[in-house]
């Protein structure tokens, strides 16, 4: 394999690696795995949406819909895990703080049984501040999108 082919190899993170990268735990962990990780440039998070998610009890009884804010959180977690993986650190000593959510659009409800593919693409980074565009898709169709900004901080800086 040539050096160019090695540098183009896309990374993955199974649930074990996701748990190493992010400080989030159930019920706030919104990503089951990450595929197609390309440096700090882009990645795709996977969320298997199941009927036993705690938010479905109240959103909405008899017609369960995944809250849009949790879809945005899945985008942020995918981007945060991508950055932390790229930096070579772990979630145990890093925190990702939301700073901005811009141009959020919700196009179609996400329901139990859906597999949410969360695509994030870097817009820019400066120091500890990172901005990404996120798109959430189900069956290839965009169900939500937004631009988000976050700051990576050491846990000691809380």
CATH superfamily: Hotdog Thioesterase
Percent of residues in β-strands = 35-45%
Total separate domains = 1
What is the terminal separation in angstroms? 44 Å
Overall, the morphology is globular
Number of helices: 3
The fold-level CATH name is Thiol Ester Dehydrase, Chain A
The share of residues in helices is 10-25%
Query: In sequence order, what are the helices and strands, one letter per element?
Result: HEHEEHEEEE
Low-confidence stretches: 1-7
Report mean pLDDT, rounded to a whole number: 90
Radius of gyration, in angstroms, nearest whole number: 16 Å
**CATH C-level label:** Alpha Beta
Tell me about this structure.
This protein is α+β, with helices and mostly antiparallel strands. The protein has a single domain (3-157), classed as Thiol Ester Dehydrase, Chain A (Roll), CATH 3.10.129.10. The chain has helices at residues 3-7, 15-21, 68-87, and strands spanning 11-13, 33-38, 42-48, 94-106, 115-126, 129-138, 141-154. It has a 7-stranded antiparallel β-sheet. Mean pLDDT is 90; it is low at 1-7.
């Amino acid at each position: 394999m040539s050096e160019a082919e090695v540098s183009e190899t896309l990374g993955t993170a199974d649930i074990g690696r996701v748990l190493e990268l992010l400080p989030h735990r159930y019920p706030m962990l919104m990503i089951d795995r990450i595929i197609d990780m390309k440096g700090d440039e882009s990645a795709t998070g996977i969320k298997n949406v199941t009927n036993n998610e705690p938010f479905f009890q109240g959103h909405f009884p008899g017609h369960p819909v995944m809250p849009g804010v949790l879809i945005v959180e899945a985008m942020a977690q995918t981007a945060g895990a991508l950055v932390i993986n790229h930096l070579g650190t772990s979630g145990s000593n890093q925190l990702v703080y939301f700073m901005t959510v811009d141009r959020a659009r919700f196009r179609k409800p996400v329901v139990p049984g859906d597999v949410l593919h969360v695509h994030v693409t870097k817009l820019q980074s400066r120091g500890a501040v990172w901005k990404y565009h996120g798109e959430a898709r189900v069956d290839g169709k965009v169900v939500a999108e937004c631009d988000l900004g976050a700051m990576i901080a050491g846990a000691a800086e809380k």
